[in-house]
Amino acid sequence: MSKQKKPLSIRPLGPNSTVVGRSALAMLAVGAMSANLVNAQEQDEEAIAEQRSNAIELIEVYGQKNAPYKAVRSGDLRRAADLANTPQTLTILTQTQIADSGKTDLKEILAAQAGVTIGTGENGNAFGDRYIIRGHEARSDVFVDGVRDPGMTTRESFATEQIEITKGPSSTFAGRGSSGGAVNGITKQATLDKSFTILQGGLGSDEFHRFTLDVNQALSDSVAIRANLLHAQEDVPDRSPAEKERIGGLLSAHFEASPTLSFTADYYHLQADDVPDLGSYFDRDAREPVEDIAVYLQDGDFLDTKVDAFTLKANYQLTDSISLQNAIRYGQTDNGYVTTGARGTNRADSDPEAPGAATISLSTHQGWQEVEYLVNQFNLFWDLEQGSVQHRLVFGAEFSDETVKNGVFETENTADTNCVTSGRRGDSPGYCALDANGNGVLGLNGLLGRTINRGDQDSHFDVQTYSAYVMDTVEFSEHWTGFLGVRYDRFDYRNVVLSRGETSEYDYSDGFWNGHIGIVRNIGSNGNVYATYSTATNINGGESDVGGSCGYGGLCGTPDQVDRSDPEQVTNLELGTKWELFDNRMLATAAIFQMTKDDVMESVGDSYSSLGTLNTGKNRVQGIELSLTGAITEKLSAQFSAGFMESEVLEAFNEDNIGLALSNFADDHVYLQLRYDATPKFSFGGSITYKSEMYGGQPDTAAGFNDDIGDYSIVVPSYEVVDLFMNYYPTESLNLRLNVSNVADEAYWTAAYRSGSFMYIGDARAVRGTLTWEF
Description:
single chain, mainly beta, 22-stranded antiparallel barrel, 5-stranded mixed beta sheet
């Protein structure tokens, strides 16, 4: 196998492409037949529209009433143009689409979408939600209501109005990072528009239960309060005793002090307590993940997250054309974990029971993180007319102070060993998950007898950032619109790192500019073409969870070298077209793009130290993204996203990496979700998710490659998963939903540790019923 990449082209979807094709065509056929059924009913559009659905109406603040899967605009007020006129790929998922999908954790929701993959926690970076957008790390590029949400945590959707995925560098909006894009969650806030109470309860397989309460009360013409509450618990499908528990709340209040002045305050809390399962491992001889592996997690394993955040927003209409907004947020996040991994090995020749026998050994991964942050964001919006040219100007300033403490847990295995294995230091007693006959040992989940104590801090990260930006959404004429943005960030960085008994202090400051320019040419009243250019910047040591682990986004170099290093630079060129179809119910988007990352800092040590090169790497991701979002008819809705991409390392300190693909990157992604409203009381639909194979490796660099076999070392196979759902609305206040996920009970894997010693297993089939009651 040659390492040289082929030119970009539209390729078959991989070894399962025939199956994918059949499934996708079947779902499209269902959609087509559904549309034909609508026509066959011999009712005109007006008559169909008069049929009132009994579905409880969700408050889609930014959505479109006759198209439940379509969002009209972003919840970030700095994005002044409607989605159809925004010169960038921006995927927005509505409440209705998310509810129909049956997915609740943000990680599950994002992983289904084109251009997004997930990564694992590792010894070099923390466990928690880790997103990768267009091949680039985005674990620190998560925002809530337009304000950065730092820290490695578990994130939930119970209080989410809509989810926005920006594709391509976005530092004009986001500041540092956002190389491949960013994620912005818009929360459910108190509103004066309507008082309501929505209670939702769900039961299902694998001991699943989930209860939410959404109460909004307009106390007067000027005051409203809202509470969103959550309790959920479930076993991981077919992987008990692995389990997940969520307890959360979002409390918000809105006060209109006058016609021109309003305040909104909210407090968010989430406690996520998981017993994590790290899945299977990669068999290097068979060149595939091991199937049907027993659940080997150990008693006492945990992955716990606690999030508390308080936000206060003020909006003031200064004049008819000028308004002011200020948002201040203070938050604390705690994340801690002790987890167990597995890998295939052999008993040593000195083993007394089965010398040389194949077996499975277990490993420990642990760490804790405490995050405290304060962010203040100020925006001035100015609607300005200059002759026939209209401007929507934004002048913004932002200050953030993030403090992150990372540390370790001290663990000790106290149980009796049951085998002898070989390692770097020779033969030693160990713990084997298989007995001498190759069968699973009894009491596997207590095999290690592990004790756990909280250990010392090993890094103290603190960064203060001062930012200023100007953006202009401009309408030149009936046919031409554009966007121009420029941002400057100045940061003071400090990190005290303890590594292998040595303490290093890093203290440096720097500043950088980023920009974004896009132009849109309207074609008729329904379509346009656009071109856009945007940039992003990553600073040395910018990932707060890794200390001096250069190979994982941590500090690269000595303190003096870090001070002299340049930041990584990312540029994006994109050409696209957007069309409003089917009476503006459906938005269709197609875009071709090329992202280039220069001055990449590379690890040349063991990835866990700060030993690295400064600005020696370069990589590129290019491809095509397609999407359809909205309603094809009054009864048939769709959310479709597809990406066909390729990645390549262009320059590297290790020349053997040149020409390789990026790690944790899937070339091809397809997601299609359809919903058919058959009657005012019944709707049904389903979704299909396809991702091509990926290769394990360190973040943002070349995937591991084995020259001896001429292939990538760790392979995550391609997969295809089909989910189904149906809704029954017996009354206007009582709704029922049934979700069946992974209908075919497909075995698949979603991510791999760089050595293959654990690979996340996708969820097995699960059945869940949900009752929603509005009163």
